[in-house]
Amino acid sequence: MRNSQLAKLKKEKARLEGPFAEEILAAMKRLGMRRLEEFADAFGLGRTTVYNLVLGRKVGNKWIKPSLDTVVRLSLALNIPVEDLIAKLYEDEVPTLGQREEVHVPVVGYVGGGPSQLEEIEERTVPVRVKGDARHLAAFKVRGNSMCAGKRPICHGDVIIVNTEDKGHPGAIVVARLENGEYVVKLLKNGALYSTNPEENGPPVIPLDQVAEIVGRVVEVRSRL
């Protein structure tokens, strides 16, 4: 497309069915960018990925959602917290409720396990019974056994439910995104993140200056056993 791409996309706004079309176009305007390729290249995003985020992509009748890695990169590009992007991505699947009912909370990625956490996850949602607004909840699938000890063991294969509005407190178990982009689940205490099973893989202590953000507090553990 030529330099008139941004203006053309705005005129065709009704056809823009991607999950983050409005946010990306606003960022492009703010940065003086006219083409989606410029935005993609500037922030290390695939060009096809950005087109899908703006125009939308379906397989059959199902909308295709971006990976957690893409959401993290987009968060940095748009200066919007990851949890806010996730909430919007799944807003039609996690409704606001007036009474305790079962809703399907999105499984947004792996926590722990390094690069393997970016693999596709078969279970896209997990059922959770809640009362009130459930949009702040997200789920992660656990890789590794660095937290498989103590009073609340979290083991390989478990699914954890996270409250993204609660950033935790000393003694809480939290999910955090590290500066290198990896997601971990750890015990928050003494100004650092700790493993409860330090003999397993991964660093036993992670200083908070290596943490990009606390995603939220773990409020439920679904054991694989």
UniProtKB/TrEMBL annotation:
Listed InterPro entries: Cro/C1-type_HTH (IPR001387), Lambda_DNA-bd_dom_sf (IPR010982), LexA-like (IPR039418), LexA/Signal_pep-like_sf (IPR036286), Peptidase_S24_S26A/B/C (IPR015927)
SUPFAM superfamilies membership: lambda repressor-like DNA-binding domains, LexA/Signal peptidase
Domain HTH cro/C1-type: 36-85
Protein name, entry field: LexA family transcriptional regulator
